[in-house]
Structure prediction request, 485 residues.
Amino acid sequence: MPIDHFPESPRYAPHTNATFKQRYFFDSSYYKPGGPVFLYIGGETSAESRFSNLKTGIIQILMQATNGLGVILENRYYGKSYPFNTSTTDELAYMTTEQTIADNAYFAQHAVFPGVEGDLTAPGTPWILYGGSLAGAQTAFSVKTYGDILYGGIASSGTIQAVLGYPQWYDPIQKFGPSDCIASINSIIDKMDFLIASKNEEAVQKLKAIFGLEALSDNRDFAMTIAFPLGGPMNYPTNTWQELNWYSGYTTDDFFNFCSNVTNIFAPENVTSVDYILAEYTNGEPWTNLGNYANYVKNTLLPLCDGVDIDSTACFGTQNATYWADPTNSGGRSYLYSTCTEQGAYQVAPEYGPSLVSRVLQVDYTQQWCNWAFPPGKYNSIPPTPDLDRYNKYGGVNLRADRLAFIDGDSDVWLDLCYHSNLAPPRHSSDLHPEYLIAGGGHHWDSYGILDLSAEPQYIQQAHLWEIRTVQKWLKSWNSTKGFR
Prediction:
């Protein structure tokens, strides 16, 4: 794959004509001559992490329904598809949205599938893309930009809108989480923020000690750590609301275990008495369920740092510029670079109203990691804050393209960056511009399958049947015209 698809663009000067090895994996089990190619966009992880979508998920479902071939393309700068041996700021210059989606079009025009007869390259064969989350956005951008090469695409929970701060991440948890758990956390956070705002360092230190986190020197690190069960900014060592799923084999109980612990009305006295330790700072009002919350953190999170300094980057501290600047290739570094340069969506507390995370968590917290991680290089430097126009130029929540389908879940933490955002205009579906919102659905829930549509929950089954019908309509049009029209 060419490292630089845009040799005339000053953005990538000085240019290179070098190439790199980009991995792809395909399944031709269902393929019959004349069938489509389904390109699964790898997104921000290794290709192996997407294998389930070829075996039992949406790509398998669509291949079986249409005699298609499925292929996963690993994104540049992920897995084993790195253009360089390290990821310095200069070497990451080609880690952009436009270079990534250009890979998709180039691959569709040049891909070879050993053991499969015939030329399956685009545009002579209908290529239909699928991606979830960031890969969903890349699917949409690819079809929008290269519609003369790529026949169609399904963007699932595609984060097509870039923003700087994204407090809406916590909105579905506020709305749909167990109400007594949510109310307790809102109240505890409100009291915590009162102590911080009033600069009562003694009380704040007592609060940290209650959680066993008195060693954390930065209040933001403390705030992020106790938010891990909910989802701290970009970091959460346990599973959160985002990892909930419709199928028991894919889901996790971490979030609901957390809330069950927070709301435990049968907690022993040594736990419930903690609720009164800080009451002197809040006009005698107890911190209801603080003991339960702290007990969960001490039992679940602190063991992750066994034998490690809590204030270090090996545990819950983040205030180490040298740690962030390590240029070793990693998916986390690549994702952070994209976040810092184009995507944004820093998880922050809302400016007003109830909050599940402390209001000390604002844009500056994530931005400092960006500044530490990517010091200016000889040719490339990151902007002061993400250049959102680089991402939003494709249309944001108003993006449209022929044969580009959008499917989202209304309980998804990323919903307000997606096509069905609560901030977007009303949506109306058509065969050429299909859209579907899964009631009660989470983050790209349609990407998962169990090899038996009839056994799926009705709301997932119907989403899958809609996707099958949508693609079949596109292919019927293709066959009637033998190509694009």
In short: The chain has a mean pLDDT of 97. Residues 165-373 form one domain. Residues 458-481 form the longest helix (24 residues). The first strand starts at residue 24 and ends at 27.
